[in-house]
Amino acid sequence: MKDHIFASWREEYIRGPKEEGCVFCRIASEDDKDKENFVLYRGPQCYIVLNRYPYTSGHLMVVPYRHLAEFTALTASELTEMMSLAQDSVSYLAKQFSPQGFNVGMNLGQSAGAGIEEHLHLHVVPRWTGDSSFVSTIGQTRVVSIATDRVYDELKSSFR
Ligand SMILES: [Zn+2]
C-alpha cells in the first residue's frame, strides 16, 4: 500500500528522532493518556489506535498488548480478537467516512515495510479513489494532526 500513497507528513516520522523502547508497549501502558495517544478502544488482549502518521485519514492499527514480532506466535484468541476489532473498525470507518475501499493487513519484517517490526500490528487503511493526489495537496503535518484529532473525536464514540 505504501508504494501507492504519497503522504509527505510521514517525512516527520521517517526523519524525526525515534523514541527509545517500543511505542506500542508505551501506549499500552499509558492508559490515562488514551486521548493524547489516539487510543480508540481497549479490549482484553488488543487495543485500537489511530496512526499518528497516517497514509490516509482514519488509518488505524489493531495492536496486541503482548510485545511480539512473530505472527505465528499469536494465540488463537489473540487472532480472533484482532480480526474482530478489524471488522468493527471497517464497519465504523465505513459509517463515519464512507471510504470506497480498505487495505487491511500486516507488514511483517523490515523488508515487507514494517516501520515497527518488533511489535506486530494490523493496519486498517480506508481508501478513496484518487486519495494519493488528495493527500499530496494537503500534505502538511499541522493540517494532518488537526485532522487526526477530529477523526479521533468522531470515531471514539463508535467504539464504546
Ligand atoms: Zn512492544
Detail the topology: elements first, then pairings.
Layout: H1 10-15, H2 23-29, H3 34-37, E1 39-42, E2 46-50, E3 60-64, H4 76-97, E4 101-105, E5 122-127, H5 131-137, H6 141-156
Antiparallel strand pairs: 1-2, 2-3, 3-5, 4-5
By CATH, the topology is HIT family, subunit A
Can you tell me the CATH architecture?
2-Layer Sandwich
Radius of gyration: 15 Å
Which ions, cofactors or small ligands are bound in this entry?
A: zinc ion
Report a brief summary of the structure.
With 160 residues, this protein is α+β, with helices and mostly antiparallel strands. The chain has helices spanning 10-15, 23-29, 34-37, 76-97, 131-137, 141-156, and strands at 39-42, 46-50, 60-64, 101-105, 122-127.
Describe, in plain words, how this protein is organized in 3D:
It is a single chain. The chain is α+β, with helices and mostly antiparallel strands. Helices cover 39% and strands 16% of the residues. It has 6 helices and 5 strands; from the N terminus they run αααβββαββαα. It has a 5-stranded antiparallel β-sheet. A hairpin with a 3-residue loop joins strand 1 (39-42) and strand 2. The longest helix is centred in the middle third of the chain and has 22 residues, at 76-97. The chain starts with 9 loop residues before the first helix and ends with a helix. It binds zinc ion (ZN).
